[in-house]
Protein: MmcQ/YjbR family DNA-binding protein
Organism: Sinorhizobium terangae
Amino acid sequence: MSDDLERSFERVRRLTEAAGLPETTVGTSYGTPALLVKGKSFVRMKDPHTLVVMCALEEKEMLMELDPSLFFETDHYKGWPAMLVRLAPIDDEALTQRLIAAWREKAPRRLASRFDAKSN
């Protein structure tokens, strides 16, 4: 793993840990570092500058329209419930919100409900 990719993934991992997302483990997806919940990938590094996050299609369209400087897709992701996030310009707070939303997309309903109950 390149130093840049490792540094970028460390930021993602650190923010996920700080958010207190339960049952999160480190793994790989398509040969790049990923975070999983109960064995299901919810984010993965595309490259040192880009993160793939799981996202409901409606939310994806809205976010890409609201801020295309942060959120985008390539042809590969069209029609797929995942979008790309540019890591350099996104601040930690906004990235944490995307990580939590991506985790919720893949977490079992009971686990997500427990997390939401603790967060409120």
About this structure: Residues 15 and 93 are 9 Å apart (CA to CA). The chain has four helices and six strands. The chain has one domain: 3-93+101-108.
